[in-house]
Amino acid sequence: MRLLLSIPWLLATLSHMHGAVADIRDLPVTRRGSVLYLNGSPWRAVGPNVYWLGLDENVIPPAGEPFYAPLNASYPTRERTTEIMAVVKAMGGTMIRSHTLGVSTGNPLSLMPTSGKVNEAAFEAIDWAVYQAKQYGLRLMVPLTDNFDYYHGGKYDFLRWNGFDLNRARDEKNPAVQNFYTNSKVVDAFKEYVRILLTHVNPFTNMTYAEDPTIFAYETGNELCGPVWKDQDVPVEWVREIGRHVKQLAPQKLFVDGTYGVNKSHLSIDEVDILSNHYYPISINLLRQDLALVSSANKSYFAGEYAWNRASLTTDDDLAMWFREIEKSPAIIGDTFWSLFGRNAPANCNQFVDHSDGLTMQYGNPAHQARIQLVRQHFVKMSQGGTIGADAALPSVPCLAALAPAPES
Ligand SMILES: *[C@@H]1O[C@H](CO)[C@@H](O)[C@H](O)[C@H]1NC(C)=O
Ligand SMILES: *[C@@H]1O[C@H](CO)[C@@H](O)[C@H](O)[C@H]1NC(C)=O
Ligand SMILES: *[C@@H]1O[C@H](CO)[C@@H](O)[C@H](O)[C@H]1NC(C)=O
Ligand SMILES: *[C@@H]1O[C@H](CO)[C@@H](O)[C@H](O)[C@H]1NC(C)=O
């Protein structure tokens, strides 16, 4: 009895003596019931979607830099990536959801340009982003594929590489798209892609992505559907198989069901920690329905995308009400708005990078300031429980001049 009691005391004393207080950035985010925890306290996931961290489509790089003109694909500069981490920190965010840290297939600059072929050079931008997120104390949620056929690739690549001549423009409603989930050759090819990604060693950290707790969650994919838009027809067996695969490679990762919308039949999949939906425009009624379903299974709920700006239907009051609703529901682990861009560093610090979908937020753009203040209030409330005034000045974030090349390649 005496011995048992003294062991924790002894360990605590030893660790104190050696100053071995764990760096919180090395600890994994965990789930108990519907709530996420970090270092023993509830942790909430708030931030932006920054889809371009691994590969971008919005900047034409200087001549001589890698560029794939048919898709305008290029790697983001280290300066742009680092600036975004500083912006998320200044906004009070705790994490970023980023498609291209996981979705990178089908063009010459992708991680997997063609079936089974790995392009090592494509890891560099991803490595840097994961490393910088860690430096800034941020976490990452990373989708593993995409429902569509955009520049960064998605499910159609795995279909085309394995005998199904399908593309989104022609075949979005073709029942054959379900082969992505049901054909064992296609499923195995996707699982191999996931294995290659998760076992890559990041030279900035000497850890695999599977080991690095900076990536707290992998998501099956972005907005996954069947042949009908938003039909939620993603087979239970496939979600379970991908979940087992991810947890076998990376036992400490949380696993997100990336089906577009909450499919009731997925609630009982043990491997799924987090379910989510996207909101264009925001809808408190839909949010409540989604939360009720997910709470009934004692799992976590995440609002993975929502329209934040004036061009969408929402007024400032609508956005504030949406945030209050999320803040008061502990089973909603958090949210990520769509989507954040920074300046065109180091080439032109006077120019914001823009994306054509009309939903681009640019920190420092006076036209976005009022909404950014609302978002920041929400992030601070969620991450620190604190309140800041609606008119609190936004911390300034410098645009980075050229960073010295880091020792990788
Ligand atoms: C939900 O999970 C938590 C943590 O495992 C547990 O304590 C709680 O009893 C569960 N609630 C329900 C309703 O199952
Ligand atoms: C590439 O960018 C140029 C210049 O912004 C634009 O005119 C062109 O349409 C883009 N191409 C694609 C495929 O998006
Ligand atoms: C990674 O490992 C290499 C080889 O052992 C070592 O030279 C390097 O300093 C390590 N880097 C980090 C960030 O730990
Ligand atoms: C949910 O998933 C099941 C199982 O794959 C599927 O049959 C169903 O069509 C999906 N959609 C809805 C709305 O339940």
From TrEMBL:
One of its GO terms (molecular function) is mannan endo-1,4-beta-mannosidase activity. Keywords: Glycosidase, Hydrolase, Secreted, Signal. One of its GO terms (cellular component) is extracellular region. Residues 1-22 form the signal peptide. It is found in: Secreted. Gene3D superfamilies: Glycosidases. It catalyses: Random hydrolysis of (1->4)-beta-D-mannosidic linkages in mannans, galactomannans and glucomannans. It comes from the Eukaryota. Residues 78-266 form the Glycoside hydrolase family domain. The keyword Coiled coil does not apply. The keyword Protein biosynthesis does not apply. Its EC number is 3.2.1.78. Pfam families: GH5_mannosidase (PF26410). PANTHER family: MANNAN ENDO-1,4-BETA-MANNOSIDASE 1, PTHR31451. Belongs to the glycosyl hydrolase 5 (cellulase A) family. This is mannan endo-1,4-beta-mannosidase.
